[in-house]
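Let us practice reading a record.
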Amino acid sequence: MNVNLTVEAVRSLPRKPDLAVWSESSVSSVAVNLDGTYYPPKNSLVPGVQKGGVPVLFGGIVVIDMDKQEFWNAAVLASKDGAVLDTYGKMHPVPFAESIPFYELAPVRLFFRNVVGIWNPWVLGTRHTVFRVPLAAGGTLSFGVPICFEDAFADLCRQYLLRGADMLVNITNDSWSKTWSSEIQHFQVARFRAVENRRVLVRSTNGGLSAVVGPWGEIRTRMPFFERAWRDVDFPIYKEASLTPYTRFGDWLPRGLIALVLIALILNVLPKKKRPSVLDDLLLSRWRI
């Protein structure tokens, strides 16, 4: 479906877009190896991307170790020829769904496999990948790709900007909820990432709220819920924008306030040296007289 939508969009537009963005989990029948090759080598994805003729960012699977069944929930950037340019493995998993504490222990592993039905949780990514694609107007677009609810974690998202990204692209799979309320809640949380970093945020979802958010939180465009559709969007890239205080320093303010509160609590419970009252001072003075 994503290939057909991309081909339809490219043929309908007066010019080719610089990038096509698909959602998380948009490619599940084809995986990518760490060396940039596809598994299986012969597949329908590469001819589909070539048919569209534009670079594609998609959510898929990266194979870490096939024998051990270790995989990333990943974002993959493919060139217009279908070659893998770079990958990013999700670093902040959903607890007890994508990552299970103590899963390396046999009793825990057997419980989740036999009772819960979770066979192999995802392996966590290890780096904040900054993807880059050339622009038809000249220059290069750099962007980070927080996957799904990673866009709720401000410190994780600002790391992309510190590493040279011009914007954020969030790919999400919210199809599980089937309700507007959860889609809107997730979107509103993601919207803050654009404001606090003063950068454009693009969201591509398979069932959530796909939209482009400007650096002041304004919604430049949005797509309808639960509909098969594509949208061509032009927006400015703030390459020369200075980093915001939050992007530069992160959560120093709340952490500093927490430290002050802890210090105050510790000082409050420490034994205090008793000091004589004013009345005691007066009585002592009279006695001495």
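A brief commentary: Residues 252-288 form one domain.
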